[in-house]
Amino acid sequence: MSAHPPTRPAASGAATASPASTASPAAAEPAASSEAAEPAKPAEPTASPEAAEAAEPAEDVEVRRFWGTLGLPGLVDVHTHFMPERVLRKVWAYFDALGPLTGGIEWPITYRQEEAERAALLRAFGVRAFTAMLYPHKPGMARWLNDWAVGFARRTPDCLHTSTLFPEPGAAAYVREAVEQGTRVFKAHVQVGAYDPSDEALDACWGLLAEAGVPVVVHCGSGPAPGKHPGPEPVARVLARHPRLRLVVAHMGMPEYEDFLDLAERYREVRLDTTMAFTGFSERMAPFPRRALPRLAALGDRVLLGTDFPNIPYPYAHQLDALAGLGLGDDWLRAVCHDNAARLFGLPDAPEPAA
User: Fold this and answer.
1) Residues near 206 by Cβ (< 8 Å), separated by ≥ 6?
2) Considering the entire predicted model, what is its pTM?
3) Among 165, 216, 250, 259, which is least packed, fewest CB within 10 Å?
4) Chain segment 300-330, per-residue pLDDT in tens
């Protein structure tokens, strides 16, 4: 499999996988059928480029072939974004405007469909379970997002009920409420929220989540642009106080990959998600150090598939392509793309951990 983004258009009206391209909501037009060659002509007409593109498999077929070849029942994606539509539109506008936290990098959103269409596309890909990674950027927003997420989880049973938090008065109360309502995973975005995760206002929250065994996906690396509290040190302070916290480092901790591998090696409940890591897009700005591949292989039971769908500037299949391109073997791919998350979230038919 190629380590570079495929050049064909993505399925379901997605944009071409080029960082400089613009996302298009319009589906690719089917190629016109060609007429049969007349008997008097010496040769069949050459197929047009449009016809050649139409002959390529649809993206959902490509994704299903990936996990089917591995003998998996599907994928589990721990890092997908669903949130109130007006909030998501503002996120997309931020990317379109090359907001400061994008690092000034062109970031055409590939999947701009409506909410129901995006969920249906994940199902077409064979994603058995996914998340609604939502996050506040100011006080007073987290509880409102959590209320929305309750409704989304009810109408989207294959989405793992997701909640969020912010360092503010009352945070512990709404975190406890979310746990009691059955939330399966939390999202913390240190960069967008511009807060220190070791802030005392969050200490009780981390304690509650550690006690409940609820995983927390945390964007805490300093990529694509550093925030106010970037890097592994603030997270290390949290883990020193709450070593049983099931913390999932988003984006493999990009670009401080090796520092976050250190934390995963030190704390048994620390995991990493693959979101955007190893793709052609990310390798150009924050390449994963090849000397660290043996460490990544050794942590194969604690690496989880994440993609950032729908906010990615290339087709979904490219993330899978990039993982396969690491050359860490089919057992590693099976664990990362399904088994590790299936066990973490107690999904039906989750395999037993290797002895």
Assistant:
1) 216, 238, 241, 242, 245
2) 0.84
3) 259
4) 999 999 999 999 999 999 999 999 999 999 9
